[in-house]
Amino acid sequence: MRLAKFTAACLFAFICFMMYPWNAHVVAADSDANLISISQDLGALSPAFSPDITEYWMRMKSSDPQFYTAGTLSNTGAILEYKMNSSNWTAIADYTSTGHLATNRGDNTFQFRVTATDGITVKTYTIHVYYPNISDADLLDLRSGNMTLSPAFQSSTTSYTASVPYATASVQLTATFSDGAANELKINNNNAVSGSPFGPVPLNVGANTISIFVKSNDQSSSRTYTVTVTRAAASTNANLSDLTLSGGPLSPVFIKNQTSYSLSDVGYAVDSLTVTPTTEDAAATVKVRVNGGSYESTGNGTASSSLPLQIGSNTIDVQVTAQNESATQTYTITVKRLKGDAALASLAVSPGSLNETFASGTLTYTMAAVGYNTDSLSITPVLSDPTGAFVTVQVNYGSITPVTSGHPISVQLPLGSNTIHVNVLAEDTSIIKNYTITVTRLNNDIALTSLAVSPGNLNETFASSTLYYTMAAVGYNTDSLEVTPVLSDPTGATVSLQVFHDWGNNNWQPGASVSGTSGSPISAQLPVGDNNIYVKVTAADPSISGYYVISVKRLSNDDALTSLAVSPGSFNETFASGTLSYTMPAVGYDTEWLTITPTLSDPTKAFVSVQGYHKGPNNDWQPGSSFPVTSGYPASIQLPVGDNMIHVKVLAEDSSVSRTYTIAVRRLNGDASLSSLTVSPGNLNETFASGRLSYTMASVSNTTYTLSVTPVLSDSNATSIRVQTNGGGYMPLSGGHANVQLAPGFNLIQIEVVAEDNTRSYTYTIVVDRQLSSENTLADLAVSSGTLVFSPLTQQYSLTVSRATYEISVRPTLAANNTEAFITVRINGGFYYYVANGANSPALSLLPGIINTVEVLVTAQNGSPRLYTIAVSQAGTPALQYLAIEGMQAKLMFSEPLLSSVTDVTYYSIYNITRGSALTVTQIVYTPGSPEVRLNMSGLLLPGDQLQFQLRADAVSTAIGGNDAMNLSFVFGTPLQQLQQRLAELDTDHNGIHINEIVAYLNSTYGRIDLNGDGVFDREDVAVILRQMSPVTAPSAGLN
């Protein structure tokens, strides 16, 4: 259903696109003498039809009554003729069946002859038609895809032979009737289908007889064809004539009756072998496998795929199978692959561990130095191949000691650096790996022999065993001390210095560690406040260390901030400790709180507090509460809407020293609402509320072209307010309101308000319907000839023009308040032409001798139509008012009663333009006193045919004189019959009416004919066309 709706919608859009004035055109004569198809159901043409191929062959069945066919012209104006055998040429209509033709049993010749519209070009298509006898029991063909018949097949030869190898266990046969209607086909007494493969037919070893039985259509005769197929026997030879390996010679030397062999041991590097077997009988097959795995086929006399060798013993089997598939023989080869593993699977030490992760392929390892107390080390090597490899241990190139895999061995460690060698010898003695471990045993001395400071002195006398010292406080300007330590073990121990500073409440934080040299001064930086200087001594054994501590205080006078941050946002100015005033960009309405993070230069001694001030309605600053803040930690302060000033006050350790930093910030309003919304003329249907965004109005008249919209802001500081209609682009207000243009129909008015903070916006909408105009009357209707008295409410008029007037134009004028209506004009049921308001229409041709109907259609904006008609006749002659074809009779109706009529049929002529032939008028029938004349005719007529009617002057006489000569064209058949006939002609693939035929019809010159008699081509006519979308056939002739 959805597809049908979609198709109809697409067609309707396409038709609307096409509904513009069009021009008829005439196809000139050309040399196209082609057929585009030859249609017949009696058998396939050979070769397949092509317009450029003119000779074909086909075979009928003996049961076919007679031959018939139909041809389709490429150019429908060409002349088509046919003949069968020696008959005369016979004319035939395009795509019309010849009917059954007299056909001889045996060979016949049928021909089509096409004469192009230029009258010169002629093309003849020939079909050689074979019509078999009903007693024909011959085969036309007999073949097989897997054997060759001897002799080659001929219908008259009934006995054949063929030979196949043993591998061919069955065959297929394809038998084809000479007569497609033959009664019976059996192969080996089984029903078969002519022209289709039969089988498989199984074959035994030796001679096999296959019979093919054919019976004729009339069952009066039959014929049997036989094929004797000989299948060869299978071989039983499963011997090899030769067997070689890529790894060396076999032992013993190969002979075909010896089935067991061996190969010398191969090295560890040889991980695969290939086998090359050669069979005595080429039809035998060979498979190989290794170590009981799956057999793999290999070619005769070619190397197998690589056979993987495992470490140790391997067995290779070569299996030979004779052609008969029952006789087999297996040859066996054994080979040993030596192990070459000289690796360790693991290597462990205790105490401690290797610095590097152990891997068998990594040979060099180190250890962290061991302490003074570690005088021996346990080594545990584990072999990857414990059954074949051998391992030893050696320290500092001393004695070599063998080790059992997986068992620890203890080695002595002198002080200092030591190298331990772990050597592995593989089963293959050419493969050796040497693993090395480097380890150092350290000293443990951590004493100082002296410790001095400068400036100043230690309060206590130094002694190596005394670890804690104090000294008098130093001034603010003393920002460092020189500390000179002297080591007891200056060659092995190390010394470093690190200052720990109390940031308040015993929050001791370390400074950077500074390494020093024994006997040389080390600079210790002193922050303001309490400091502990740690002098660290580390023995050569880094696990042993100790500290000497010096406690010293540096006084502070710092009342500065090192940083001041806000969130969200940032300062407009870059922060500097000496800069006290800061500003920041205004923050949005959603930012109700501001986070202040002050960081003191002296966080352990100084003190910081925060206090906010808000500008009141009289521009006076109103203070908020002051509260303390921890240095480096954020504190939130509330921001009222408007201007704010925040004070950040810092007190130094000396409370007489202070400074105040200020931050100016504005919090923007976020109100994007309206306080009222009015329109004029009219009112909103809904009561206005600031939080309601959608409104409607009652419909306004068609004459209301503008609407005044007056919105009032809730917050006068809002960033912007603007209005747009129907998406045409926003415009600002003028004088507090906007005049918007209303289009006919529904209009969408949008009022957009952006709050002061630019992050909030509301869009209010008003929907208003401006009614469409229903006015469809004319204020005036003028004609180019004759006199027409016009009244807007009178819709039908009669007009008489002179006999010399052959065309007329009209000038319709709309009322002053009705400029949006649409005007079209046509004459005698032809196509409508668009006419601009107050403009002359195109010249409308008058047909002589008839009453011409001029129609002026006015369509209002809302779609309601009004039709004005003018009946135009020429003075002084009887007019032909009516012409229709009923069956094979033409009916003419004049405007006056007849006194008499000619009996000469040549006064009337009707030519079928579509068929290219004239209709013959055989009799004129009339009654004096009646206005009617009937013409009896003969000839070919089909709905949709274009006819040319000619009437000579004075064919009839009336009281006002004789008729004028006239020449007019018209289409035979009712509009619906014409539609069906033309769709049938467009259905060239004969599969029914579908979208392709509908589109082709609409693209044609007759594609917009009024089908339902309402005078216009509109959607109702489109519906009639779409209802034809189903398989149809051409309607029968005969219409009005």
Would you tell me the overall average pLDDT? 88
Largest sheet: 7 strands, antiparallel
Q: Given the structure, what is the number of helices?
A: 4
State the distance separating the first and last CA atoms: 36 Å
CATH architecture of the largest domain: Sandwich
Number of domains: 8
| Shape by Cα distribution | flat
Strand order of the largest sheet: 66-67-71-70-69-72-75
Helix percent band: under 10%
What structural class do you assign from the helix and strand content? mainly beta
- The low-confidence parts are 1-28, 1032-1040
Identify the quaternary structure here: single chain
Number of strands: 75
> What is the CATH T-level topology of the largest domain?
Immunoglobulin-like
Q: Return Rg in Å.
A: 58 Å
Share of residues in strands: 35-45%
Name of the CATH class of the largest domain = Mainly Beta
Organism: Paenibacillus thalictri
Protein name: Cadherin-like beta sandwich domain-containing protein
Pfam families: Cadherin-like
Keywords: Signal
